[in-house]
Amino acid sequence: MSKAAVPVTGATTIIAGATGKLGQLIVRRLAALKQPVRILTRRPDAARRLFGESVQIAVGDFGDRTSLDTAVRGAGRLLLLSPISARLVTDQISAADAALAAGVRRIVKISGSDWTIDPPGHSISGDAHAAVERHLNSLALDTVSLRPNAWMQVSLANAVRQAIATDTVAAANPDAGVGYIDARDIADVAVDQLLADTVTGRTLNLTGPDIVSARQLADLLSTTLKRRFAVVEKPPLAASGDADFEHRAIAQFAKLIAAGRAATTTDVVKSLLGRPPRSVAAFISEHAAAEAALSE
């Protein structure tokens, strides 16, 4: 938690998006701190398999206001996380409004990357997250939107996996850097902001400690795995005209990254947690060790 923060204990935290990669990390951190957690899910059996009896489970759906009202009743905090979709704005605003009506005191939103949101008009996903952020900022309760840069466990993990399989690192612009952030650091900041006495501003731009390009990634892989990785240029990912919302959003991410928009770092993680964020080099070492263990 923030070095100067006083934890808000006892109040139930409701987690939307608990069964995804990041949601699981947040739930387990809260449970380890003996914080009461309630999960909003359409898949109660899957949630129970993941978390056992350590959490409460509320069966519900963003599109069902009655189930939302039941899920948030008596909760003090809401972690707002949902997949990229055409319903993101409607779903998240519905959850926020239900939380406000139920007397929830704080909402922590996992938002889009800062470079997808500002300036507007370049990312349908970023524009959707921005619309939710504006709504949250209009509510009479504590809200903070976390804007993680590219996630190591998603975009970087895919790049590393493909590189290991082909001995090449492919990128539309091999010199475009990315301030990757580890999902574990996102989870730590989310828990910090859920439990702290006060939130730290309206938006927090979360990045790793350094900017890494495809060429630098190839060098890191070569050093770690003791074999040469080449760099190849590939056309930027494009989505067909009839692609769904998620695939169009991902194609826009790729275009923005190739333009260097994700090449940024901040000191937010260190200032909040009192330690530096995890590095790409450390992530690659862990990933390589896991791959080696699987091949034995």
Automatic annotation (TrEMBL):
**Annotated Gene3D superfamilies:** NAD(P)-binding Rossmann-like Domain (3.40.50.720), UDP-galactose 4-epimerase, domain 1 (3.90.25.10)
Q: Name one Pfam family in it.
A: NmrA
What is the name of this protein?
Answer: NmrA family NAD(P)-binding protein
Please state every residue range assigned to the domain named NmrA-like. 13-231
Q: What is the scientific name of the source organism?
A: Ensifer canadensis
